[in-house]
């Protein structure tokens, strides 16, 4: 019988939210050893609580995919504006991050004691090792070297105060955990809301690709001579999924691509490997409607990444850098209108055309927004199901790993990238053409790519950015490719050729106006009275002389820019800013810890 893992975890693991410090808790073994872990069913119930720790993301905060994020607490915003220090850094607490690890290790220790079949025990040990690997892969991304623990420590254990273990040792342990999970977790679990062998393979591919490319492009960790085996493991994991026949891409249009991200159910979608399912009857919801017009919009840089529908580059179009809002939507890759809120979009069938948020850049996000208004019932009450691992990412991982290894062939592209393109009716990628004519616009973004495969690596990165936009993967990509300077860009929004009134909904009727200030309305003269009365007005300077958070890059014309970047200039320090500082309080508790690169 299916169990909803979120509700079960809330019921069974309520103690996990207790404010009592981890070190002060009574050992769980006083109750659980003898009274709880008696059957495989007990293991399932306990492990249900782990699913809260693996998330489905629906935005790319703090990256170059966002024009602006008004939430100043986004970690990368704090890093690049210099407001994050070891004194105010979050995380690393024994009552938070490390408590998750203790629950996994506790589970693993006691799963081996059950009187049941070896196969069942191995399946659940695989589940525990999957989550431990997921935890440590994230910790290594944040800190590089971290202490490795493979048992549930008691409060007085000296091991809790040991130094960090080397990244190489920790990542080998992560890969060992993932291989065990792949080898022992059941293939057929009857639902895509549970960890299966296929989800373990998808995570193995994601982690191996990340670590392999990280080692290849990051000299500071001293592991550049040991990256190929990770990329080879990524290829192997992807090939296992691809050859299984268990998954395929869904549909044959841009609209079908969009359905992956705004459907009430993904149970029958052949692309979904693992999902976070919604269920109104059980109160399982999300907040995906907030992606449109709340705290962020998407960036000019992301907009320019999408190709034209005929496969040519948008950035090769004459005057591409001065195209107005409506014009940039013409003749583009169909995924563009499934990701960006396009002119004429309506939230309801009978409603007015949606007006994008000028103060956030004008390129409002559409991907993940629930199109069916019956699925939107209020704040944090959206009822769409969200993919966590999907086959499209597997195809991207396969192509990228082979390209970085230098073994990519046209046949490889045809069974990966070109399947993604064919689904939305885009022309196929040619290996020879990509390498013969590398895109100068992409070279500027990724200047450290070199070699005979340079052009195709750049084009795969384009495809990856387009296909997975807003899915929470862009941060990882920028990190592992060692192009952290992209985090520090003052990302721009849409272009406006002047001040005045503009039609941005496509109905040939002016919808918004950008004026110098409330007193300067000369540019509105000549408009019909009914049009003027319905304009949404924006001012570079408000009545009291303060700004409205944005300006145009050329004064009275240009791309939307943001005054917050003027007040807090963004900068990226390499390699320091690829890592987070360990909180000072934890350094005080454990003097054996050392800060990551540059945070001393």
Molecular structure report:
The protein is mainly α. The chain has a domain at 5-57 and 91-244: Serine Threonine Protein Phosphatase 5, Tetratricopeptide repeat, CATH 1.25.40.390. 36% of the residues lie in helices and 6% in strands. The protein is built from 21 helices and 10 strands. Helix 19 links the parallel strand 7 and strand 8 (536-539). The longest helix has 26 residues, at 118-143. The radius of gyration is 25 Å and the shape is globular. The protein starts with a helix and ends in an 11-residue tail after the last helix.
Overall geometry comes to globular
Task: State the CATH architecture of the domain at 5-57 and 91-244.
Answer: Alpha Horseshoe
Determine the mean pLDDT.
91
Order of strands in the sheet with most strands? 5-10-9
Over the alpha carbons, how many angstroms does the gyration radius reach? 25 Å
Q: The CATH topology of the domain at 5-57 and 91-244, please?
A: Serine Threonine Protein Phosphatase 5, Tetratricopeptide repeat
Can you describe this structure in just a few lines?
This protein is mostly helical and 600 residues long. It is 36% helix and 6% strand.
What does the secondary structure layout of this molecule look like, with pairings?
Elements: H1 5-12, H2 29-35, H3 40-48, E1 66-69, H4 75-80, H5 97-111, H6 118-143, H7 167-184, H8 197-217, H9 228-244, H10 254-259, E2 272-276, E3 296-298, H11 300-305, E4 386-390, H12 391-405, H13 410-414, H14 417-423, H15 431-436, H16 440-445, H17 454-467, H18 474-480, E5 495-496, E6 500-502, E7 512-515, H19 529-533, E8 536-539, E9 550-552, E10 558-562, H20 563-567, H21 584-589
Parallel strand pairs: 7-8
Antiparallel strand pairs: 1-3, 2-4, 5-10, 6-7, 9-10
Helix pairs in contact: 1-3, 3-6, 5-6, 6-7, 7-8, 8-9, 8-12, 8-18, 9-12, 12-17
């Amino acid at each position: 019988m299916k169990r909803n893992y979120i509700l079960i975890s809330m019921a069974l693991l309520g103690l996990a939210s207790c404010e009592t410090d981890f070190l002060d808790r009574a050992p769980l073994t006083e109750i659980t050893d003898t009274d709880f872990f008696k059957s495989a069913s007990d293991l399932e119930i306990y492990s249900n609580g782990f699913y809260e720790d693996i998330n489905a993301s629906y935005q790319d905060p703090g990256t170059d995919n966002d024009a602006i994020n008004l939430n100043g607490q986004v970690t990368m915003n704090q890093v690049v504006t210099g407001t994050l220090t070891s004194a105010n850094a979050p995380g690393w607490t024994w009552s938070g991050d490390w408590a998750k690890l203790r629950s996994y290790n506790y589970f693993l220790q006691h799963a081996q004691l059950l009187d049941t079949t070896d196969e069942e025990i191995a399946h659940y040990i695989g589940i525990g090792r999957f989550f431990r690997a997921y935890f440590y892969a994230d910790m290594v991304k944040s800190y590089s070297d971290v202490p490795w623990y493979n048992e549930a420590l008691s409060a007085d254990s000296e091991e809790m105060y040991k130094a960090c273990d080397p990244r190489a040792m920790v990542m080998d342990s992560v890969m060992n955990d993932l291989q065990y999970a792949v080898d022992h977790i059941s293939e057929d679990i009857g639902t895509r809301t549970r960890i299966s062998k296929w989800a373990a393979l998808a995570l193995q591919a994601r982690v191996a690709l990340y670590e392999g490319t990280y080692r290849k492009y990051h000299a500071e960790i001293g592991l550049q001579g040991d990256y190929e085996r990770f990329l080879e493991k990524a290829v192997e994991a992807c090939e296992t999924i691809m050859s299984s026949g268990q998954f395929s891409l869904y549909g044959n249009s841009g609209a079908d691509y969009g359905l992956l991200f705004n459907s009430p159910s993904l149970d029958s979608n052949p692309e979904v490997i693992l999902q976070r399912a919604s269920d109104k009857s059980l109160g399982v919801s999300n907040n995906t409607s907030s992606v449109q017009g709340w705290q962020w919009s998407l960036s000019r840089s992301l907009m320019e990444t999408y190709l034209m529908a005929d496969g040519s580059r948008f950035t090769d179009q004459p005057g591409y850098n001065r195209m107005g809002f409506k014009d940039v939507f013409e003749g583009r890759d169909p995924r563009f209108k499934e990701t960006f809120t396009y002119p004429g979009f309506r939230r309801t069938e009978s409603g007015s055309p949606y007006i994008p948020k000028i103060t956030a850049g004008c390129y409002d996000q559409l991907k993940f927004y629930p199109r069916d208004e019956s699925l939107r019932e209020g704040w944090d009450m959206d009822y769409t199901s969200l993919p966590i691992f999907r086959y499209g990412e597997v195809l991207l991982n396969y192509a990228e790993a082979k390209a970085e290894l230098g073994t990519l062939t046209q046949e490889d592209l045809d069974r990966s990238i070109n399947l993604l393109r064919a689904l939305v009716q885009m022309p196929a990628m040619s290996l020879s053409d990509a390498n013969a004519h590398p895109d100068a616009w992409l070279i500027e973004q990724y200047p450290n790519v070199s070699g005979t495969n340079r052009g195709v690596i750049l084009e795969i990165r384009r495809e990856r950015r387009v296909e997975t936009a807003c899915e929470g993967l862009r941060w990882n990509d920028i990190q592992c490719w060692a192009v952290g300077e992209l985090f520090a860009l003052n990302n721009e929004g849409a272009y406006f050729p002047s001040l005045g009134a503009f039609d941005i909904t496509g109905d040939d009727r002016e919808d918004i106006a950008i004026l110098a200030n409330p007193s300067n309305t000369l540019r509105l003269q000549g408009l019909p009275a009914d049009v003027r009365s319905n304009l949404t007005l924006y001012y570079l300077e408000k009545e009291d002389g303060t700004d409205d958070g944005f300006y145009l890059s050329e004064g009275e014309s240009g791309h939307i820019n943001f005054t917050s970047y003027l007040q807090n200039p963004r900068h990226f320090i390499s390699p320091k800013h690829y890592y987070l500082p360990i909180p000072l309080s934890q350094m005080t508790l454990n003097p054996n810890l050392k800060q990551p690169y540059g945070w001393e």
